Amino acid sequence: MRHGNRVKKLGRKKEHRIALLRNLCRSLFIMEKIRTTLHKAKEAKKMAEHLIEFAKRNDLAAHRRIYRHIHDHKLVKIICDEIGPKFSERQGGYTRIYRLGPRLGDGAEMAILELVEKSEPDTITQRRKLIERRRLVETQTKKEKKKKVQKEKKSKEKKKEKRASVKEAKKEKKISKKKAAKTKAKKGKKEKQAKKRTKEKKGRKKRR
Question: How does residue 107 score in pLDDT terms, banded at 50, 70 and 90?
Fold first, then answer.
């Protein structure tokens, strides 16, 4: 009898299991091919095909329904605009599973889960960069690279000039302080000598 065997537990609780399947589907829609265990691939296949059915509609309700499972607006847009239209003529069977045999460590049966209709590898790499970095990495020309290098050199030179000017100003301040201290000391000596002379004059007058 199949008591409690309706859902594959995958050795996890409900929240952990749902998070695992969502992450598998997310990586499947980004890379269009993932390698995992056979039981995980079978469960992820159900969710992925369910989401592709909504992506074929490509309306606001479908966007919201997909966003429940994949919390990334850019990836949801990619699923509905790029992946969904590829399967417009199909009525199911959007993914396939290849068995790879047992894993060396624990003997778990491995498999590859991939989409039936794939896009070019350049678009996949661009998609991955867009989702990871949140912006497209633009290819720079040689002229732009040279301009960047020149700007960096100029900025470094300006920083060096500023540092040199600051050092010179500090040196000048130190020299001026030393000069002021010397002049003060000379004035103090002169004042002391004048006081001594006045005292000596007063003493001579008293003696007379």
Answer: very high
pLDDT reading at 205 higher than 60: yes
Q: Rounded CA gap, 106 and 9, in Å?
A: 19
3-state SS string for 169-201: HHHHHHHHHHHHHHHHHHHHHHHHHHHHHHHHH
Residues near 93 by Cβ (< 8 Å), separated by ≥ 6?
Answer: 49, 116
Q: Of 81, 147, 79, nearest to 115 (Cα)?
A: 79
Domains of the chain: 14-139 (3.90.1030.10)
Cα(77)–Cα(165) distance, integer angstroms: 54
Query: pTM, whole model, 2 decimals?
Result: 0.61
**Which position has the higher pLDDT, 147 or 77?**
77
What pLDDT shows up at residue 146?
A: 80
CB atoms near residue 49 (< 10 Å): 16
SS (H, E, C) 61-106: HHHHHHHCCCCCHHHHHHHHHHHHHHCCCCCCCCEEEEEEEECCCC
- Give the count of alpha carbons within 13 A of 58, CB side only: 13
Q: Which helix (H) or strand (E) holds 37?
A: strand 33-37
Is the sign of the CA dihedral 139, 143, 145, 151 positive or negative? Answer: negative
What pLDDT score was predicted for residue 128? 86
- For residue 21, what are its two tokens? 């399947």
